[in-house]
Amino acid sequence: MTKTIFDIRDIMSMLAHRSPFLLVDKVIAYEKGRSLTAVKNVTYNEPFFAGHFPQVPTMPGVLILEAMAQSCGLLTAQDTGIRPETGVIFYFAGIDNARFKRVVVPGDQLLLQVTIDRVKRNLWRFKARATVDDELACEADIICAFKQPPKNPGAETTQ
Q1: What's the domain range around 129?
Q2: How many helices (H) and strands (E) does the chain have?
Q3: Position 3 in a domain
Q4: Catalytic site residue from 5, 30, 39, 52
Q5: By the 8 A CB rule, do 45 and 107 touch?
Q6: 98 with 65: CB under 8 angstroms?
Q7: Which of 22, 23, 125, 155 is in the most buried spot, having the most CB atoms within 10 Å?
Q8: Is residue 89 part of a domain?
Q9: Is 24 inside any structural domain?
Q10: pTM score > 0.90 for this model?
Q11: C-alpha–C-alpha distance, residues 31 and 115, integer Å
């Protein structure tokens, strides 16, 4: 059995996400300044399975990417010490070279492996992979950035 490095309480202290959008269950490996490996247990109780697809429940690819991005956020939060209560959010800023190789279904356990590729000021680039039983499900280059959220979202006006 793989040792848990960070449990769900630790994860909730590092990420602003909450149910039903928190897509990481635990962290099983962490190397400061380098990499992190997290786990997402995919269960039939996930709210998206009701509509994607009722006859053939399949985890949406965009949610696999989001789980990988949240893993990037955990690596960055642990490396920088920045937490949600600071008011700074680590936003998903871009994605390159995304490829889906395997369907993810209820009962699967996604292993989310992220590695820092580059850091330039507040922009972080990662190499990310999601596997199920050592079989590649998804891989992508993920870009994230630290930002202060707007004080009053949607209230800005243009002239």
Answers
A1: 8-147
A2: 2, 6
A3: no
A4: 52
A5: no
A6: yes
A7: 23
A8: yes
A9: yes
A10: yes
A11: 9
Distances (CA, A) of 80 to 32, 51, 57, 70, 72: 10, 38, 37, 15, 12
Residues 6+ apart with CB under 8 A from 56: none
The token duo for 104 is: 């993810």
Residue range 44-80, pLDDT digits in tens: 999 999 999 989 999 999 999 999 999 999 999 999 9
CATH assignment of the domain containing 140: 3.10.129.10
In a domain, 157, yes or no: no
Rounded to 5°, the CA angle 146-21-75 comes to 40
| Cβ neighbours for 89, distance < 8 A, ≥ 6 positions apart | 16, 146, 147, 148, 149
Residue 52 a catalytic site member: yes
